[in-house]
Design brief:
Helix content: 25-40%
Number of helices: 5
Order of helices and strands: HEEEEHEHEHH
Strand content: 15-25%
Largest sheet: 6 strands, mixed
Structural class: alpha/beta
Radius of gyration: 16 Å
Distance between the termini: 41 Å
Length: 188
């Protein structure tokens, strides 16, 4: 009996996953030239929220794009952070007068590439804030400013709280404060 698998070719798995998601979910589209899923309709007068990370544990993050959650999700290669150029493309696409909140999990690559994209967006005059989630209770919080608690399952709750605040019309600073409070309170 021949082996069966759901993956056609490992080199195309991320592209095919994102393509399949856009076919199966109304209201989502892939940003041309990037592994970024965005909401088809965005209110740029409200805060828009971006997150993302390495692929391989779907439906995270693209599966969380929708009203009251994320405005866009940036997909990296399998178990690797997305490039800053993809993150910046997502920020540029969703950001309007309401601003953009970027929620990132506490992994070195994610912090580096999402952080760099946020700084580039700010240099271009966009109103962007970054929130880091480190909810992993398996690791002690050493408070040393070095790698510590990872962002894991609790990040989804931070997305939901920030998304609800943004959908209700809160300002960027209010949405960021709500996300920071949720990140500080959640543990996985």
């Amino acid at each position: 009996m021949a082996a069966r698998q759901l993956i056609n070719d490992p080199k195309n798995v991320v592209d095919e996953m994102l393509e399949g998601l856009t076919y199966s979910q109304a209201g989502l589209q892939k940003l041309d030239g990037y592994n970024v899923i965005v909401r088809s309709s965005l209110d740029k007068n409200k805060v828009n929220i971006i997150s993302g990370g390495g692929s391989g544990h779907e439906p995270s993050h693209a599966g969380w794009v929708g009203p009251g959650m994320l405005s866009a999700a940036v997909a990296g290669p399998v178990f690797a952070s997305p490039a800053s150029i993809s993150v910046l493309a997502a920020i540029m696409h969703v950001t309007g007068p309401g601003g953009c909140l970027v929620i990132v999990k506490n992994y070195t690559g994610d912090r580096l590439w999402f952080g760099l994209a946020c700084e580039q967006a700010k240099a271009a005059g966009l109103n962007v804030e970054l929130v880091v989630v480190g909810d992993d209770c398996a690791l002690a919080d050493r408070g040393l400013g070095i790698a510590g608690r990872r962002g894991v399952a609790g990040t989804c709750l931070v997305h939901k709280i920030a998304g609800a605040a943004a959908e209700a019309g809160a300002s960027l600073s209010e949405v960021a404060d709500a996300a920071r409070a949720a990140a500080a309170a959640v543990g996985s």
